[in-house]
Amino acid sequence: MSWTLRDIRRTYRWMAWPYDRLFRRGYQGLRQESLKGLSLRPDATVLLVGVGTGLDLRFVPPAGLILAVDLSPAMLRRAAQAPASSAVDALIGDGARLPFPDASVSAAIFHLVLCSAPDGRALLQEAARVLEPGAPVAILDHFAPRGPMRKWRRLASRYSWVLGTHLDRRFEPMLQGLPFEVQNDKSLAGGYYRAIRLRRR
């Protein structure tokens, strides 16, 4: 099924209320593992695309400012009330069309968003534009595995749109040709999730 921005806003409007109950406890360790070792300057500007209800905000290492972007006003209203490690500027917007200058961001975080957005590659492409050279990127998502399990993910993805995500997306085609180098790629939760660390060249 093809996703549009309108589909995402509609889905996460009704998911905003139960989202924390469904995803806070089970995903806390995954979020922390993804952000482990993320080194930021005290004055760093951190881009967090798909902030949702703000479950990541308290785990981001202390920085100067977190730019928290989300398509869903309902999710962003909850994120504004979430505990955070640093000052937060919450913006309703599309991560593929950011209102920030070139090379103005010190780091980026993409947690559980590249498999939910209409075009995950477009998010990474826009991140490449706004990130400083050498900036780290932390990614956490349930990318499709190689091998026979991918067939089952493709089948399950026919129904996962109800929860606003795709289960059969591959990471490598998203990254191909973009100015990033992979520094770390770790399997989590028995291989169902991957925590990937990139560096902007």
Structure in a nutshell:
The chain is α/β, with parallel strands linked by helices. It contains five helices and seven strands, in the order H-E-E-H-E-E-H-E-H-H-E-E.
- CATH architectural label: 3-Layer(aba) Sandwich
What is the 3D shape?
Answer: globular
> What is the average per-residue confidence, as pLDDT, rounded to a whole number?
89
Largest sheet: 7 strands, mixed
Strand order of the largest sheet: 3-2-1-4-5-7-6
The ordered string of helix (H) and strand (E) elements is: HEEHEEHEHHEE
**Strand portion:** 15-25%
- How many helices? The count is 5
The termini sit apart by 34 Å
What is the count of distinct domains? 1
Per DSSP E runs of 2 or more residues, the count of β-strands stands at: 7
Unreliable stretches, pLDDT < 50, 5 or more residues? none
Radius of gyration: 16 Å
What does this structure look like?
- This protein is an alpha/beta fold.
- The chain has one domain (5-200): Vaccinia Virus protein VP39 (Rossmann fold, 3-Layer(aba) Sandwich), CATH 3.40.50.
- Helix content is 33%, strand content 22%.
- The protein contains five helices and seven strands.
- It has helices at 5-35, 73-79, 120-130, 149-160, 171-175, and strands spanning 45-49, 65-70, 88-92, 107-111, 136-141, 180-188, 193-200.
- Strands 3-2-1-4-5-7-6 form a seven-stranded mixed beta sheet, sandwiched between helices.
- Strand 6 (180-188) and strand 7 form a beta hairpin.
- Helix 1 packs parallel to helix 2 (73-79).
- It starts with a helix and ends with a strand.
- 38% of the residues are buried.
